[in-house]
Design a protein that fits this description.
71 residues, two-stranded parallel sheet, 2 helices, 2 strands, 52% helix
């Protein structure tokens, strides 16, 4: 059973995954527009944040990724 911060981390990962899936499904790949994310990684621990940054780095090879964060 998940509690407190574990639920927050899970929800943050799910929300990021849904946003990235929507981008893949709705935005054309032949003319890629940027992805803008605001504090999308703020609730992740350092290991998950690093993995998410690697994923965003891969996506950035195809389209611009703009990540706003306060951390």
């Amino acid at each position: 059973r998940l509690v407190g911060s574990e639920m927050c981390i899970r929800d943050s990962l799910m929300y990021l995954a849904v946003r990235l899936a929507i981008v893949d499904l709705t935005l054309p790949g032949d003319e890629p527009c940027p992805i803008v994310l605001d504090d999308a990684l703020v609730n992740l621990d350092s290991g998950r944040r690093e993995a998410a940054m690697e994923l965003l780095g891969e996506i950035a090879k195809e389209r611009q990724v703009i990540l706003f964060t306060c951390s």
